[in-house]
Design a protein that fits this description.
This protein is α/β, with parallel strands linked by helices. It has nine helices and seven strands. Strands 3-2-1-4-5-6-7 form a seven-stranded parallel β-sheet, sandwiched between helices. Helix 1 links the parallel strand 1 and strand 2.
């Protein structure tokens, strides 16, 4: 299927690896020029070169922290009028509710709620004026089913979902959509590091923990970044103009509800 977005321009946040990289590559394969950002200069430049060689599109790499005002300004200076915006940022660390400080909560909200809101505010009205725009927020399955020890992430990401619900409907009249993808367990560096930490805490063999985690997923496996990127690219396509304000679960069937 031709997604109809060749020649468009996208900002993809936290794109040096994992879900962000998978999304940037999927968009580039559709002929979208991408501006990608991440904290580590060497990693984001390596990813940019990899995408250029694989697709031939224009790739601009911006090293910086998207959760800061300075980082956002740098990206928007490189791409002030994107057609597509992929909001993505690492989640706050796990812990026990009793140990979280107010500063921990403030940081979580800054990273996973304020940052995407700031980028949406900076870009959505230009999209509406031009008559096309696609915004995808990468959040978490915890929006649908809160995860113990991830209360910081649960709260901030759920807050983002509510915060953009109205503008998603308003913008749709101008062919601009805003949707959220809620990933479950995907085979990324973050999942591998959390699995290793889990094995250490439980005193178990890491392979056994991996097998246990996969067994808990109806699909019997972790998702791939290629699968994630394909789903995100479709939400950015010309065919997805009637989908807005939605939460798309990509979790291999883990969420037990029917709605």
């Amino acid at each position: 299927m031709d997604l109809g977005i060749k020649g468009r321009t996208a900002i993809v946040c936290a794109a040096s690896k994992g879900l962000g990289k998978g999304t940037a590559l999927a968009l580039a394969q559709e002929g979208v020029n991408v501006v990608i950002t991440a904290r580590t200069k060497s990693e984001i430049e390596a990813t940019a070169e990899e995408i250029r060689k694989a697709t031939g599109v224009k790739v601009t790499a911006i090293a910086g922290d998207i959760t800061t005002e300075e980082g956002r300004k740098a990206v928007l200076a490189a791409c002030p009028d994107p057609d597509i915006l992929i909001n993505n940022a690492g989640g706050p660390p796990p812990g026990d509710f009793k140990d979280f400080t107010l500063d921990d909560w403030r940081k979580a909200v800054e990273w996973n709620m304020i940052t995407p809101i700031a980028l949406i505010k900076a870009t959505v009205y230009g999209m509406m004026d031009r008559g096309f725009g696609r915004i995808v927020n990468i959040t978490s399955q915890s929006v649908k089913a809160p995860i113990a020890s991830l209360e910081l992430s649960n709260g901030a990401r759920t807050g983002l979902t509510g915060a953009i619900a109205v503008i998603a409907r308003k913008a749709s009249r101008n062919n601009v959509t805003i949707n959220n993808i809620l990933p479950g367990p995907f085979d990324t560096d973050r999942l591998r590091s959390s699995t290793k930490r889990m094995a250490e805490l439980q005193g178990q063999d890491e392979d056994k923990v991996v097998a246990s985690r996969k067994a808990a997923i109806p699909a019997g496996r972790f998702g791939t970044t290629v699968e994630f990127g394909a789903a995100a690219a479709f939400l950015c396509s010309q065919h997805a103009g009637f989908i807005t304000g939605q939460n798309l679960l990509l979790d291999g069937g883990s969420f037990p509800g029917s709605m």
